[in-house]
Write a structure and sequence with these properties.
heterodimer; A: 92 residues; alpha+beta; Histidine-containing Protein, Chain: A; four-stranded antiparallel beta sheet; 3 helices; 34% helix; 20% strand; globular; B: 571 residues; alpha/beta; Glucose Oxidase, domain 1; Enzyme I, Chain A, domain 2; TIM Barrel; eight-stranded parallel barrel; 22 helices; 16 strands
C-alpha cells in the first residue's frame, strides 16, 4: 500500500485550524486516507478526513506521521496531503 | 402571584413575555434498543440525515456570525458530520442500539478521549457534547438547545448563559435576562451590562415559568414577578422614561461638591472606543489588548499591534488611555502563550506571568504600544495584569522605560498587591483595581459558579477593605517621598472592574478614595447621575458604613438605603 511520512510543520500542531484544513483536503480525495503516528501499528491508523480523529491523534509540531491510501489516485492524494502537513499553516 | 428573588446584576425594570431556553437534551436511556420494526440501515440513514441537518444549521449560523464565535461554530459544524463519530455510532446501531443512544455513547467516548488529552483538545470536548445533544434533539424532533429564535421581543430565562450563547444573542429581541444559576460576575452578568439589558441571576425556581407567561423584571433589585401588578406596570413605564433621560452623560464625573472623579470606559478595540467616546467617556480606564489577539493562533506582528492600538488611541485625542498588556490565561487561553494543561489555571501562568515562560512577547507588545503612542495624541498609560509583588512591578517598569513608555502601572487583582501597595507603588506611576479577579482571589470563589454568587460580589467587606488598603498604600508611598524631599502627591488608584459600573458601589469606591472609575460605557450615565447627588463627605460616610457591615448583603442594603435616588431612578 502506498504510504508517506511527513513532519508536522504548523506551530500549534495538528489541531485547531490546521486540523480543519487537513481534514477538509483529505475528505476531497478520491481515496480513503489514513493517518497514524510513526511507529504506531497500521491497524490503529485513523481516518484522515475526520477532524475528531486528527485531534485525538494529538500530533504536535515536529512529530512524524504516516499517511496511507490505496487505489487509483492514492499517490497523488498522499503527495498533496504531505505538502499541506509540511506547511506551517499558522504562519499564513 | 408568584415572585422570585435573585441577584440583580444589570438595572432596568421591564415587563415582557418569557421564552425559556430549551431544556438540556436528556440522556437516552442506557440500553435503549432499536425498535423491532426498524432496520439498522434505516436507522443509520436517519442518523446521517439528522447529522447533516445539524451541520447545515451550524454552518449557516457560522456564516452569519463573526470573530471568535464564527471560528467555534465552523469547527463544531465539521464535528457534526465527522466520520469517526458517525462510524462508531453506526457500529452501535448495527449491534441493536437505538440511533439516539448510539450517537449519545459515541459522542461520550470521543469527548472523553479529547478531555483526557487536555489542553486545547479538552476545551473542544464540550463542543462534541453540544453536537451530540443537537443531533439527539433533531432525531427526537424537539427544539435544538440554544437561544430560541423569535421575531417578537421576549425575556430570556435560562439556567445560565455560556459565552457561545452570548455570541448569538440578539439584543433587538431579547428584553432582559433571567437565570436560575450564574453569579454576579458570570458571563450572563457581563454580557447583560455591556448590552444594557436588565438582568437577574441566581433566581431559584424561574426554570418553572411557562413559555409565554408575562413577567416583571427588576434588574436592580434582583426581583422577578409573575402576573405583574399595576404598581409593576407603573414602574416599568417610569423606567422607560428615566432610562431615556439617563442616556446622556455630560462627560464630567464629579460629586455634588465638585470633587472630580473622571469616569472612563473599558474597551476591547477601536469599535468600543469610538462608541465609548460617543457616550461621553472621559478616556479609557481599561483597554483589554488581548481582544486584539484572541482569534489568533500566533502572535500578531509589532506593526499589526501598533495599528490596532493607535485606532483606540485616536478615539481619545488629548485624553487618558490606560492600556493593559496581554492578559492571557485561565478563561482567555492563547495557544502561543498559555499552557492549557495546567491543573489550576486561575492560579497559573496568566497575565504578566506569561513573561516568565514566554519571554519576548511582552517586550514586543511594549514596543508596539510605544510606537502607536508616539503617533497619536492620547495620553497613554500602560499597566500589567496579575502583578503580585513589588519586584514584578519594578521589572515591568524597567521594561516600559526601555520601550520609551512614560507612565507604567499595575493592576491590583492579587490580594498580595493590595496588601503591599505602598512598596508596589514605589516602582510604578499608578495602580488600577481589577475588582473581578480581586474578589475571586480574596474570597477563593470561582467567578462562574452560581452556588458561590453570595461570596463573589465586590460588596464583600473584605474586598472593600483591600480597596481601602490600596488607597492607603498610595498615600503612604506619597508621604514617604515627601519626607525624603520629593513631591508628595499620592499616585492615582483607579477601579476598572465590574464594581465601578454599579452606581451605589461607585459612590462607596469614591468614598474610599479611588481617583477614577472605569466601566462598560453603557453604565456611564447611571454612575455619573448618582455620583452627582452625593458630596465627597457623604461618600466617605457610606464607605465607612459598607466597611463596617458584617456581610456583602448588608453592606449593599445599608448603602442603598442611604441613596434614595437609586430607587427613584430604578437603578
Amino acid at each position: 500500500m502506498p504510504e508517506r511520512t511527513a513532519t508536522v510543520a504548523s506551530r500549534s500542531g495538528l489541531h485547531a485550524r490546521p486540523a480543519a484544513l487537513f481534514a477538509e483536503l483529505a475528505g476531497e480525495q478520491p481515496v480513503d486516507v489514513t493517518i497514524a503516528m510513526q511507529g504506531q501499528p497500521e491497524d490503529e491508523a485513523m481516518d484522515a478526513a475526520s477532524i475528531l480523529s486528527l485531534m485525538t491523534l494529538g500530533a504536535a509540531k515536529g512529530d512524524v506521521v504516516v499517511l496511507r491510501a490505496e487505489g487509483d489516485g492514492a499517490d497523488a492524494a498522499l503527495d498533496a496531503l504531505v505538502k499541506l502537513l509540511e506547511t506551517d499553516l499558522d504562519a499564513e | 402571584m408568584q415572585n422570585f428573588q435573585g441577584v440583580g446584576v444589570s438595572p432596568g425594570r421591564i415587563i415582557g413575555s418569557v421564552r425559556q431556553m430549551p431544556k438540556p437534551v436528556s440522556e437516552p436511556p442506557s440500553g435503549e434498543r432499536l425498535a423491532a420494526d426498524v432496520a439498522p440501515e434505516d436507522a443509520v440513514a436517519r442518523l446521517k440525515a439528522a447529522a447533516q441537518s445539524v451541520h447545515d444549521e451550524l454552518k449557516a449560523r457560522a456564516d452569519s456570525a463573526s470573530g471568535d464565535g464564527k471560528a467555534v461554530l465552523e469547527a463544531t459544524a465539521l464535528m457534526a458530520k465527522d466520520t469517526m463519530l458517525l462510524k462508531s455510532a453506526g457500529k452501535l446501531i448495527n449491534a441493536g442500539s437505538s440511533a439516539e443512544r448510539a450517537i449519545w455513547e459515541a459522542g461520550a467516548s470521543v469527548s472523553e478521549m479529547l478531555h483526557n488529552l487536555g489542553g486545547y483538545m479538552a476545551e473542544r470536548a464540550t463542543d462534541v457534547l453540544d453536537v451530540r445533544a443537537r443531533i439527539v434533539a433533531e432525531l427526537r424532533g424537539v427544539p435544538a438547545p440554544g437561544i430560541p429564535s423569535s421575531e417578537t421581543p421576549f425575556i430570556l430565562v435560562a439556567e445560565d448563559l455560556a459565552p457561545a450563547d452570548t455570541a448569538t444573542l440578539n439584543p433587538a429581541v431579547v428584553l432582559a435576562l433571567v437565570t436560575s444559576g450564574g453569579g454576579p460576575q458570570s458571563h450572563t452578568a457581563i454580557i447583560a451590562r455591556s448590552l444594557g439589558l436588565p438582568a437577574v441571576v441566581a433566581a431559584h425556581g424561574v426554570d418553572e415559568i411557562a413559555d409565554g407567561s408575562e413577567v416583571y423584571v427588576d434588574g436592580a433589585a434582583g426581583f422577578v414577578a409573575l402576573e405583574p401588578s399595576d404598581e409593576h406596570r407603573a414602574s416599568a413605564t417610569a423606567w422607560a422614561e428615566t432610562s431615556a433621560t439617563l442616556a446622556a452623560f455630560d462627560g464630567n464625573g464629579t460629586t455634588a461638591d465638585g470633587h472630580l472623579v473622571p469616569l472612563l470606559a473599558n474597551v476591547g478595540g477601536a469599535k468600543d472606543a469610538v462608541a465609548a467616546a460617543g457616550l461621553g467617556a472621559q478616556g479609557v480606564g481599561l483597554f483589554r489588548t488581548e481582544f486584539c489577539f484572541l482569534e489568533r493562533d500566533t502572535e500578531p506582528s509589532v506593526d499589526e499591534q501598533a495599528a490596532a492600538y493607535k485606532a483606540v488611541f485616536d478615539a481619545f485625542p488629548g485624553k487618558k488611555v490606560v492600556l493593559r498588556t496581554l492578559d492571557a490565561g485561565a478563561d482567555k487561553p492563547l495557544p502561543f502563550l498559555t499552557d492549557a494543561t495546567e491543573p489550576n489555571p486561575a492560579l497559573g501562568v496568566r497575565g504578566y506571568r506569561t513573561d516568565f515562560t514566554t519571554p519576548g512577547v511582552l517586550e514586543r507588545q511594549l514596543e508596539a504600544i510605544a510606537r502607536a503612542a508616539s503617533e497619536s495624541e492620547a495620553d497613554v498609560w500602560v499597566m500589567a495584569p496579575m502583578i503580585s509583588t513589588a519586584a514584578e512591578a519594578g521589572r515591568f517598569a524597567s521594561l516600559c522605560a526601555a520601550a520609551g513608555i512614560k507612565t507604567p502601572g499595575v493592576m491590583v487583582e492579587v490580594p498580595s498587591a493590595a496588601l503591599t501597595a505602598a512598596t508596589v507603588l514605589r516602582e510604578v506611576g499608578f495602580a488600577s483595581l481589577g475588582t473581578n479577579d480581586l474578589t475571586q482571589y480574596a474570597m477563593a470563589a470561582d467567578r462562574q459558579l452560581g452556588p458561590l454568587a453570595e461570596l463573589n460580589t465586590p460588596w464583600q467587606p473584605a474586598v472593600l477593605r483591600l480597596v481601602q488598603l490600596t488607597v492607603e498604600g498610595a498615600a503612604q508611598e506619597g508621604a514617604g517621598r515627601e519626607a525624603s524631599g520629593g513631591a508628595g502627591a499620592a499616585k492615582p488608584v483607579g477601579v476598572c472592574g465590574e464594581a465601578a459600573a454599579d452606581p451605589a458601589l461607585a459612590v462607596v469606591l469614591t468614598g474610599l478614595g479611588v481617583t477614577t472609575l472605569s466601566m462598560t460605557a453603557r453604565s456611564l450615565a447611571a454612575v455619573g447621575t448618582v455620583l452627582k447627588t452625593v458630596t465627597l463627605e457623604q461618600a466617605q460616610e457610606l464607605a465607612r458604613l459598607a466597611l463596617s457591615a458584617p456581610s456583602a448583603t448588608e453592606a449593599r442594603e445599608w448603602v442603598r438605603a442611604k441613596l434614595p435616588v437609586l430607587e427613584e431612578l430604578g437603578l
